[in-house]
Description:
Layout: H1 14-18, H2 21-50, H3 55-86, H4 89-113, H5 116-149, H6 154-187, H7 191-195, H8 199-217, H9 235-248, H10 250-280, H11 285-310, H12 315-335, H13 339-367, H14 370-402, E1 404-406, E2 412-414, H15 415-438, H16 446-454, E3 466-472, H17 478-491, E4 496-500, H18 506-516, H19 524-548, E5 552-556, H20 559-569, H21 574-585, E6 592-597, H22 600-607, H23 619-635, E7 640-644, H24 649-663
Parallel strand pairs: 3-5, 3-6, 4-5, 6-7
Antiparallel strand pairs: 1-2
Amino acid sequence: MLTEDTPPLAGRGPRAVLRLPAFRKLYTALVLSSFGDWLGFLATTALAAQLVDSFEGKAFATGGVLVFRLLPAVLFGPLAGAFADRWDRRTTMVVADLLRFLLFLSIPIVGSVADRSTALLHLLAASFLIETVSLFWIPAKEASVPNLVGPQRLEGANQLTLIATYGSAPVAAVVFGLLSLVSRALGSGFEYFRTGPVDLALYVNAATFLFAALTVSRLDIPGGRRRTDSQRSTIAASLREGLAFMSGTPLARGLLVGMLGALAAGGAIIALGRLFAESVLAGGDAAYALLFGAIFAGIALGVALGPAALGDLSRRRVFGPSIVGAGSALVFMALVPNLFLATVATLLVGAFAGVAYVVGLTLLGLEIDDGMRGRMFGLVQSLMRIDLLLVTATTPFIAGSIGVREGPLGISINGVSVVLLVGGLLAVGVGLLAYRQMDDRPGIPLRVDLARRLARRGPEKTHRGTFVALEGGEGAGKSTQLALLEAWLRARGHDVVVTREPGATSAGGRIRELLLDPTATLSPRAEAMLYAADRAQHVAEVVRPALERGAVVLTDRYVDSSLAYQGAGRELERDEVARLSRWATEGLTPDLVVLLDVDPVVGLRRAGDSPDRIEAESLEFHRRVREGFLELAGQAPDRYLVVAADGSPEQVHAAVRRRLADLVPEPQVVRA
């Protein structure tokens, strides 16, 4: 069974995602853009320092570039997200990359003909405009990824995205150093490179954005198309909708608060790392470099290894605790003035923050509708940048205001340690708040899930009984197998409930008549919603009460049929169908899904000469349905049993019975 919280399994990891041609193109553009961003950051800050002579001037010029790069997020971040929801996302990304190409290209050109003051002003203005354009590119890219990879591979895609974003930084640093050496060598023979040693890096940087634009221009991105005039709202209205959605949705609100808390924990170390290394650890630049490297190494480890380590744990449940972990490590770092332990703590802060970041991005992509996704990512990116700006700007000032003083009992109090301690405690509080708002298994203690994961056991059941769903295409023999299983289980002394979808309830019977009526005309979305309505009543009236009393429930079709028929067959977005079914069933999933696989040609021949509305669909439709079932089974092999249904009923029954023998042990007989 596939839900939004389904973890990465075989075929969902980063390697599987890179096998998707459309995502590979977008990822190439992302790598180029991320590399260009870091190279541009290094080149513009270096150029700012070269355009002034005094130490104070260099500090203010470099700081000015940083401020002008962060300022657009305060002004335009949510606006850019709303823009991404209203306009074609491919066009947005192509135009943004072309504008960044032209802006970076203008910096060395203007610098070669203008005086130093004018060149510095142009550099600051260009930095502001480049970052403004980037704000439009980022939500368009983030909102496009779920449409390219689907919900099952979204976590792997987010891992790759974050690796490209942060992993390109050291590569850019090496390339910048090499380009600086090349410029110095060229400067011995060319006056241009002697007076503009950073220009070569800026030209290379501009070229990366040009290549990124060309790559995205050849990409077809589903979703995010320009709205018609009747659908189009103003940018202000779109922005209001995004803010209202974020403030009124507990999950989105919890994700936002949590991601800001995780970023603040990491940002505090970046902002105070130099002061902490010097005043607390009594170290110098080497100690600072060690802490700085540890935080990014931790983020990389969390992003790359976190999803695999989490396994099948609910992503909603682990998001808050990962922030608690980051805050706890920061508290430990503040209390223990030892370089080795501080480095380990910094590594843990980064790792937990990396896990929180990739899980948060995945949940945002899964839970938010495509029409709202751009606004949400724009708002999140904007607030995260503001968060980082506030943390890096205020924490050194607060630490300096506290200073170093003697406290009670002669204990030395250092402002840096105090700020890190308070920041860690706040992160712990934020993590606990996010956990309370997002926990989707409130009846089961988190420690139970963690212990189960460490022992590599399956998920704890939320009911006493056993839930088995039989799935398959038309004519697969589900009814025959249900009858055989019912007889076998009853002979073993079990309370057995045999049911079906649609039509197991009084209301469901009426829905079934409409769904299967050959004369009825239903749109794919209406059909999906009718199946979900039948399923909601089915679970509430039949399935859940039987499971709670300890019965074995055998159902002919369940959620996987909707994912295969409406998702693959009708070609609806499967993540939307999954969300609808998850809401209808309140997350109730089978303990085992038995997929009776049969060639549609054979199955339709078995179905008879009086087909209902679904059976009467084209052979191509039924082939898509079969492929959809098999894809679901391949993604969760531990929870599926795939049986070739072209054998005799006795052979199929024997295969199913062998699997169920361990899942449904013989009931215990209580003797008087």
